[in-house]
Amino acid sequence: SFCFFSFRSSAKLVAPLGCLVSRQKHTLPDLPYDYGALEPHINAEIMQLHHSKHHATYVNNLNVAEEKYKEALAKGDVTAQVSLQPALKFNGGGHINHTIFWTNLSPNGGGEPKGELMEAIKRDFGSFANFKEKLTAVSVGVQGSGWGWLGYNKEQGRLQIAACANQDPLQGTTGLIPLLGIDVWEHAYYLQYKNVRPDYLKAIWNVINWENVSSRYATCKK
Questions:
Q1: Annotation: binding site
Q2: Residue 86 CA neighbour count, 13 Å, CB half
Q3: Is the peptide bond before 198 cis (omega within 30 degrees of 0)?
Q4: All domains in the chain, ordered by first residue
Q5: How many Å apart are CA 178 and CA 171, to the nearest integer?
Q6: Are 148 and 161 spatial neighbours (Cβ–Cβ below 8 Å)?
Q7: pTM score, two decimals?
Q8: Per-residue pLDDT at 23 exceeds 50
């Protein structure tokens, strides 16, 4: 939580630091389904490692980085604050991205979206097939590790496709509001699809949770 304050002397600085101390640590969110629920499209071993190891590591490292950042703020050490930015971006982004990703998937997913989201997809991409092809191509084309995204451009009032490198969070780095993220780090698919990323991307459309994506779209349009 943020604390707003005014001060006339350095003694008053105790107030904002107290606010920082009371911050809750980030925690690993539970998956809304079992590890094996997305089979055969994404197998249980991948889901277990991806959630309980990879995402958990981002959460732990984010908490460590924030603790160090809090100390640097308390000391007024700007150099240390700047040096911690990459760790905050990488682990903070990893936590944000995966928290969205798990809800974007569902054992009851697949098919096509309905309602307002479908209308917007047709308006901005011509057709659902065209949208699917574009997001797949952008995701396949990510060099090394990263994510393919469907985001909402609030200023322009339209849907937009984007790719982000590593764990760069979509909104924090592009301003687009994330609706649907596709993780194309090798840890998301290698145990099942080896180095054939296109096969993984073909399969993932069978478990996309369009209700969740539609709900995100409705929320950001308000």
A1: 50, 98, 183, 187
A2: 3
A3: no
A4: 44-104 (1.10.287.990), 115-221 (3.55.40.20)
A5: 7
A6: yes
A7: 0.88
A8: yes
